[in-house]
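Q: Got a minute? One more chain.
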Amino acid sequence: MTREKCNCLCLKRGTSVFALREGNQCRCGDNYGSNGEAERSDCRLPCAGDSDQMCGGRMVNAVFKVDKNHC
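A: Always. Here it is, folded:
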């Protein structure tokens, strides 16, 4: 998984945000949820598809807006 791959997957699903979690999970949605913002340091697991990118943390989502121009 990478940020770009998750972004494109969620764009195809028509959602406005995407989240990366556990280094290899992609989640699509239209809101950030109700748990609030985590500390940036909690999102430090490298992406399985690109270890230079961070893909969330243990039980922590790194949330981004879907970029329609990035696929």
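A: The helical segments are 3-13.
Q: Perfect, thanks.
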